[in-house]
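In this supplementary section we document a worked example of the pipeline. Step one takes a protein sequence of length 484 as its only input; no multiple sequence alignment statistics are reported here. Step two produces a three-dimensional model, which step three serialises into structure tokens for compact storage. The input and output of this example are shown verbatim.
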Amino acid sequence: MALRRRPVEGPFALILRSGNSDHLHCLTRAAEAQGLHRGMALADARAICPDLATRPADLARETAALMHLRRWIGRYSPMVARDGSDGLIADITGVPHLFGGEDEMRADLHARLERAGLSAASAIAGARGAAHALARHGGGIAHEGGITEAIGHLPVSALRIDAQTAQALARMGLPRIADLVPRPRAPLARRFGPGLVLRLDQALGAQPEPVAPEAEQPHFGVRMTLPDPIGLQDDVMAGLSRLLGRLCEKLAHHDRGARRLRLIMQRVDKETAQVEIGLARPMRDPERIAALFLKGVEEVEAGFGIEAMRLTAHVTEPLPPEQLGGGPAVRHEDALADLFSRLGNRLGFDRVLRLTPAQSNIPERSFLLTPAAYSAPEAPPPHTGPGRPIIIFPPEAVTTGGMAHPGHPPARFRWRRMAFTTLRATGPERIAPEWWLSDPAWRSGLRDYWRIETREGPRLWLFHTPQVPASRDAQTWFIQGEFA
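The serialised model returned by step three reads:
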């Protein structure tokens, strides 16, 4: 575990919310000197140390930092893996002699971490469980044949067992690892389960526990250093085409497609220009991607010339190979994706929307507006009732000029300051409100929808609220849509 030294005076700790209270997640040596420890409640810590300075922990950034540190530890071993959420484990078999021995190797590790501003605890042992226990209880080196002596004084909780088992062992008079070593394994397994015996044997080296490093995530980036500075748009686009070809080959090798790409151009004066684009769907077609970079490259100020270019696909998604067949060179879905990409880069991908169907009979809730780049087109569900209008808008009241006959639409009405005469009416289609949702617009209850063809031309979608008492002042007829 490592914590970068902070330029603050006095004890400092990172806190993490757990349940309804804050706890110390990581703390400096100055804080530990005050009697604080990891996992302590923040209220208790402040009672002991009122001057404690704190900041919230960022677990995502901690994980990213641990991955960067894992790559750096590769200087000491090719086999490095994560050990919990705050540690690293490395198999250094055959490596210490390159540094002059285990003591010198550990000293070199701590010296480099110290120069980087990191304080860490480390341990070297012939078994992974022993190294884990030592590293979290002060560190040190368990020399060959001396694992039992090195970890025997540690509490049984250092064996990576649950707290309940550790407390039960302590109540039985077995608080240290040395107390468990001479005990017969069978009674321990019957009383506490096979997990305790496995962890004990792993710590003593009786059970193998190999280091299995995680596979490195591929980096989708390519770069080019130019022999002479360039400044013309055509030259930049030619260099970009070469970079895109190499990048798309790497994406195809991993069955990935780019969603966001960034082109960084380094000028002769050491300044950089950057062009970033997004794609409406995963893609690895160099020609189609290059066309989206054209507008951004046009706006780049080359200065005294560009001497290096770097292209990265920092957001990718799975894109397995697909059979294109003998169809047209550019399919309809590809052309639509290119359109969404062009509009999204100009307006913002959250502003290019598409309609997707929703499971509701209520007209205004029968569709959803979703960003086209982050959603797939969906076919509307089968509809067996009367047809719906092509345009739907919030209900607008109409003036009937008098009492309408019950169960029939008005013969004449006014809407949007225009007079209309009903030529033909089809309906009604009764729609009941969704009682499990609170919608003020539907508190009047049922609606009877009619398809009206007017003498003046427009074909409108009227509805009537039959549960509202009919009177000269009551508004019971509304228009909510218009047919093509």
